[in-house]
Amino acid sequence: MDFRLTEDQRALRAGVRDLLAGRYGREALRKSVSGGTSVDRVLWRELGEAGFFSLRLAESEGGAGLGLPEAVLVFEEAGRALLPGPLVATHLAAGVVPGAASGSAVVTAFDLGGPLVAHLGEADAVLGLEGPPPAGEAVRSVDPLTPLWRSAGVPAAGFREEGALLTAALQLGSALRTVELAVRYAGEREQFGQPIGGFQAVKHLCAGMLVRAEVARTAVYAAAVTGDAAEIAAAKLLADEAAVRGARDCLQVHGGMGFTWEADVHLHLKRAWVRAEQWRTAAEAEELLASRLGEEAEADHHGPRG
Fold first, then answer.
1. Phi/psi at 225 (nearest 5 deg)?
2. Is 305 a residue whose pLDDT tops 70?
């Protein structure tokens, strides 16, 4: 689908994809999973040098002076690659927390609600809190590359909408990647003498994945342009659904293979589950959208009559 990206935007997305393919390809991902390395400090600094975190800082402050649409494209590629770490929080901290823009500091945020925070053990700072990160107790996480901690803190004020949108972009990248994985496997795996992609049930699964991913892409890109809170909520809601349901359907296409450690499909599902709880949950998005619809209906009811 053509979203009429500018030449510079297409070049940016291609550049990020090439960077991550070379620096964090499948071999690096498997090494991270095997070693339990959720934040690679060397890679973090390389991302900083490439402008990943300073993308939206003004040029006078050492950034690229770009906007949310460009940041969404960058985070979409990070989602495709299953790049781990508190990417959103560190990006939002650029220009606020020393070292965040350059990647020399790892910044996390209380974006999961309640007492949970991701990557607290690897973080140098917490967005919105002064001083070193608070103490915490490690708890088991469904995603091996998103360690969780129980600690006291509150979400950083003023960053929630941007955080939700960038997280939606990560979910979008993951959803698009699982479509590719499902289609590729359906074309390679044979049963009863033909590729399983020839069976109607598998075709329907892959088609449903593609539709959800493309609808989410439209919503995420539109919200990046408008910056409207309700549109961001809708984008997060749709991207969460596309990522979670897409990964589940991809697992079904892969059968038992998808649950093994040799496959990446289950990693997309586990990461999607965690991201669905970050910055804005489905229930919170639905509440915001319902409130906005109520306000618009009330305004129409009391508006001028012809």
1. -80, -45
2. no
What is this structure's pTM? 0.93
Q: Report yes or no: 236 and 276 within 8 Å, Cβ to Cβ.
A: no
Residue 25 burial (CB count, 10 A): 11
Contacts of residue 300, defined as CB under 8 A and 6 or more positions apart, other chains included, come to none
Query: Strand 116-118 and strand 148-150: pairing?
Result: antiparallel
Q: Who contacts 274 (Cβ-Cβ below 8 Å, separation ≥6)?
A: 118, 141, 142, 143, 146
DSSP, collapsed to helix, strand or coil, labels residue 81 as: coil
Q: Is 190 helix (H, G, I), strand (E, B) or coil?
A: strand
3-state secondary structure of 247: helix
**Concatenated DSSP letters of 112-151:** SSTTEEETGGG-SEETT--SSPPP-EEE--SSTTS-EEE-
Q: Is 40 helix (H, G, I), strand (E, B) or coil?
A: coil
- Percent of the chain with pLDDT strictly greater than 70: 97
Mean pLDDT of 8-26: 92
Crossing angle between the packed helical segments 229-254 and 265-275, to the nearest 10 degrees: 150
CA atoms lying within 13 Å on the CB side of residue 143: 26
Q: How many residues does the chain have?
A: 306
Q: How far apart are CA 130 and CA 33, in angstroms?
A: 32
Q: How is the chain split among helix, strand and coil, in percent rounded to 5? A: 60, 5, 35
- Residue 277's CB: how many other CB atoms inside 10 A? 17
Mean of pLDDT over the chain: 92
Burial of 122 (0-12, 13-18, 19+ CB in 10 A): buried
Please identify which residue in the block is written with the tokens 């609808």: 215
* pLDDT tens digits, 168-206: 999 999 999 999 999 999 998 878 888 888 888 999 999
